[in-house]
Structures are given as C-alpha cells and as structure tokens.
Amino acid sequence: MPQILRMPSEDELPRGPKRTFVSELFIYFREAGRPSPASIAAAVSQSPQPTRITVSRETVRRLLKGETTSTWPKVKAVHDVLCRMADRDPTWRRFSDSSDYDEDNDTRTLYEYIRDLWNDAVDGVESDDGPPQMAPVSEPAPTGGWGGNAPSGGWSTAQQPQDDPWATGTPQKNTSSQQTYSDEPPF
Q1: Distances (CA, A) of 172 to 149, 178, 183, 184
Q2: Any residues with CB less than 8 A from the CB of 146 and at least 6 apart, and which?
Q3: pTM (2 decimals)?
Q4: What are phi and psi of 22, to 5 degrees?
Q5: What is the pLDDT along the chain (187 residues), one digit of tens a residue?
Q6: Alpha-carbon distance 63 to 26, whole Å?
C-alpha cells in the first residue's frame, strides 16, 4: 500500500520560499483528500487543456515533498487538478474571507498567488524580504586568470604550455625527458 504523503518537516525542507510554495500547494492537496500522486498525474492527463500537459506521479511526489519546483505549466496543471478535486475555483480570490491576511486588500486569485509563490521558490527570494543574500565565499578566488598562482594583474605565464586539458598541478616526474600530467579530470 502506498504511503500517504505528508508535509515535509523543517529538517527536510527548511523555512524559505520553497517551503512557503509547498505549504500552499499542500493546502489544496489536503482539501482534495490527499489523493495519490498517480491519481493526480492521471487527472492531469485527462484535463481539458489547450496544450496537452503530462505530469508523472514522481513529479507530483517531488513537488509535494519540495524536491523540485518543476516548470510552471506542470505546476499549474497539478494546482488546477488539486483545486478541482477540492471543489475550489482557481479564479477565486485567495484572501477574500481570510481573517489572518488582507491588510493591503490583496486581490490575487488562487492561481495568481500560487504562481507568485512558485516564482519566489524558483528565484529563491522571500516575497517580502527583497533580494536574496549572497553566501560568503569559503575560499579566496585564485588570482591571475586561468593559471591560478600567477601574480595578480594578468594571465598566468607558465614556463611551458600545457597541452593536456586535464592537466592539474605540477607535472609528474618521468624517467624520460618529457613531462607527463595526470590523466584524471580535475573534478
């Protein structure tokens, strides 16, 4: 028997725009009676749409677990199906009868609101917090262009050109008069 999907814990999906998006999607998922990802995917494939959208049950599962944000057409199709299963019209105002939010007379529909949350999740931006903060760099960037340890202010001028694109570090010692480099890729 398939396991019922649950909202991911904060350890699995930390607070942020992606969690906010998944939480909103979960509202419709719960109201629809927690249908299986397979039944959601089947309903999407049977939906009357101008362009046929297919969504796999794995994509549905990953959307609801916060493992992907997928593409907007797929998210919209899943949202439409969940709204239909929950007997909600996606063109209804999201905050029309909510007591917890409507200070700015937010007139967005369910469809517009989920789209805005999806965009925030894709961009990694909190809707009210402005642009995301850049993570600090853990190691200083090498100076001097591609050569790495060259003096700052210009390209590295190696003693001998490297013909091996996988070459890393210093040449390995060889008994012959030619230098050799590691065949291992640098990543």
Answers
A1: 18, 10, 11, 12
A2: 155, 156
A3: 0.61
A4: -65, -40
A5: 567 889 999 999 999 999 999 999 999 999 999 999 999 999 998 877 666 788 999 999 999 999 988 999 999 999 999 999 999 888 877 876 555 555 567 778 888 999 999 999 999 876 554 443 434 444 444 444 444 444 444 444 445 445 555 555 555 555 555 555 556 666 5
A6: 10
- Scan for tokens 């190696």, then name that residue: 158
Q: How far is it, in rounded angstroms, from Cα 25 to Cα 75?
A: 9
Q: Is 81 left (phi over 0), alpha (psi -120 to 50) or beta?
A: alpha
181 C-beta neighbours (distance < 10 Å), count: 16
Rounded-to-10 torsion of CA 78, 79, 83, 85 = 20
Q: Rounded CA gap, 172 and 185, in Å?
A: 15
Coil vs helix vs strand at 93: strand
- At residue 134, what are phi and psi to the nearest 5 degrees? -80, 140
